[in-house]
Amino acid sequence: MEGASNDKQRQLDSYRIARDQGHLTTQQGVRVDGTDDAVKVGDRGPTLLSDFHAREKLTHFDHERIPERVVHARGAGAYGRFRPYAGWLGKFTTARFLADPTVETPVFVRFSTVAGSRGSADTVRDIRGFATKFYTAEGNYDLVGNNVPVFFIQDGIKFPDFVHAVKPEPHNEIPQAASAHDTLWDFVSLQPETLHAIMWLMSDRALPRSYRMMQGFGVHTFRLIDADGQATFVKFHWRPKLGAHSLLWEECQQIAGHDPDFHRRDLWDSIAAGQYPEWELGVQLVPEHREFEFEFDLLDATKLIPEEQIPVRPVGSMVLDRNPDNFFAETEQVAFHTANLVPGIDFTDDPLLQLRNFSYLDTQLIRLGGPNFAQLPINRPVAEVRHHQRDGYGQHTIPQGQAAYTENSLGGGCPALADEGTFRHYPEPLYGAPVRARGAKFHEYYRQPRMFWRSMSGPEADHIVAAFAFELGKLTRPVIRERVVEHLARIDADLAVRVAAELGLAVPDALAPAADGIVSPALSQLSLHGTGIATRKIAVLVADGVDADGLRRVRTQLTARGAVVETLAPHGGSVRAQGANGQTLAVDRALATVSSVLYDGVLVAGGPEAADALGGDGAAVHFVLEAFKHAKPIGAFGDGTALLRLIGLPGPAQTELGAVNGVVVTSCAGREVPGRFADMFAELLAGHRVWQRVTHAVPA
Known about the structure:
It is a single chain. The protein is α+β, with helices and mostly antiparallel strands. It folds into three domains: 75-149 and 194-375, Catalase HpII,  Chain A, domain 1, CATH 2.40.180.10; 448-527, Up-down Bundle (Hemocyanin, N-terminal domain); 537-693, Class I glutamine amidotransferase (GATase) domain (Rossmann fold, 3-Layer(aba) Sandwich). The chain is built from 19 helices and 19 strands. It has helices spanning 2-13, 52-62, 96-99, 159-166, 182-190, 195-201, 249-258, 262-272, 327-332, 351-367, 447-454, 458-473, 478-491, 493-503, 548-560, 608-615, 618-629, 641-646, 675-686; strands at 75-84, 105-113, 128-136, 139-146, 216-217, 222-225, 231-240, 278-287, 313-322, 345-346, 537-541, 564-569, 574-576, 584-586, 589-590, 601-604, 634-637, 658-660, 663-666. Strands 1, 2, 3, 4, 5, 6, 7, 8, 9 and 10 form a ten-stranded antiparallel beta sheet that branches. Strands 15-12-11-16-17-19-18 form a seven-stranded mixed beta sheet, sandwiched between helices. Helix 4 runs antiparallel to helix 5 (182-190), helix 6 packs parallel to helix 11 (447-454) and helix 13 packs antiparallel against helix 14 (493-503). The longest helix is centred in the middle third of the chain and has 17 residues, at 351-367. It is globular, with a radius of gyration of 28 Å. The model is unreliable at 696-700 (pLDDT under 50).
């Protein structure tokens, strides 16, 4: 429905203030003739309190910071639109935005890390938030999820305990945005319900290549409600059209120094360039009569439904196509809440979700200064809002009328109660006495972590072992390390043996049986590759004397596929092209300002003079060697192949065209560079990594 998108746009436009025109004024609209000097008695005397402009300016500055989010403080956001593919989901829900393909719903999505502060780096090892606000015609619906499908705890009452454990330790406020410390692992070692989410945290899923290349999950089991009031259990999934891809841990640590804003910059630049990220929304549907058929409890947020048991069915597509105008007003002030529902969607009795429904609202009250935060432009629904709430901090609207209560006669009985299009809670029968307890199936902690581990590819398993070794190696108390390894032994013997060997610990006696557990191939990221190389970043190393014709030919072919190609040289400005015609080639970045970890692949351009210059430049040599170490595609054409031979990279001998171990070369230069060269490089780039370069063992 184009109307909703246009209504939201007009609503936001009414709040915009153009700072690139007009005169400087006070908050009351009074024009100001100077703002560099406060009013004084003479030019060297005391400042006068009568200077209301100076006082207003400083007062606002003193109060311009609001409390950051306790969790998910570090984030980035964008606007977009969602549209269903077809109407089949209308059999299960009355939510039109999910079921009517004629309805286009505006959205705002905020991605985030969980543990770090606003000033932390983007590429830390952490779970990522994936929160979507749908501005539907029936009201706002918030799908507040993460980039992994499970959570660390089963009951919301333990949320403060978990967050306190993973946050910097209270005695010294160390470490920032990191889980490799005693309190987190002490908590984990004593709370085995955390182990499934910990496996995801130790995996590549905690190190996404970009927000655009990570999955999203609603985590909890919700209900869809149809027109007859019948319910179906549902799990929500976001799948990126670019595929799910990750960084390596070493890359993450380096990127945090080179560009701590790596993920937010990537999202912003992609949208600004018109390369709009896209996700497919999918659902797993479980009829109510099948609620108890699983070996786990559907209400347990530390468990997932294997896709091999309940397939994910595609519902619609979301495209993010506009960056915010102001980070604070939009991305920082957006307020998500798991209890923001619309007719056709309802909760379950998931004990984590039930207390999230309390906690989110409570958090916004303190962060955003009072109960009227829903009136902020980023939070306002496109649906009509009429109620009897009054006053409070941040009251932006001007309510009219004398009566502010129901029922009334002074206002003609309005706002009136509706008899259609309303939200009605699912009438689930309730039985039992109040107890502090969990369902029996909640107490099985090892089967799904085992499934996750045994579903990993060789490289992914290697990375999990390395992550455990790194994290546990940072601990100061050996007993915590030992307790964690004991839990790993109950998950899988091979996992425990490998981690224990890295830590120099004895293998526990109690080991999980080799044949126990199931495998879910859908859990491996290697099953989630996208197609093509759109938005992939390629670094091309050049120097004076570069083969500009060959580079132009290769660059044209790669950018036609949607790749982002940047030329890097030992210096900024431009480089001289090969030949005596005086041509120059603009340099995008100097080598000293970048690193190979910021790119997905590397090409070395030809030209004998350029090859000699690059071969004698330590930064260029390191750039290529590091990219090879990180299993990235590497290519060279013409005399650029000399650099690869100089530094001893394994690859084909100088040949018209060949590829070995993810290194593509051609001896051809200029306009003779074959088109197949770019094709072969693009095929490698689409695979994200050249995993055969990495030795690994496959889990049993």
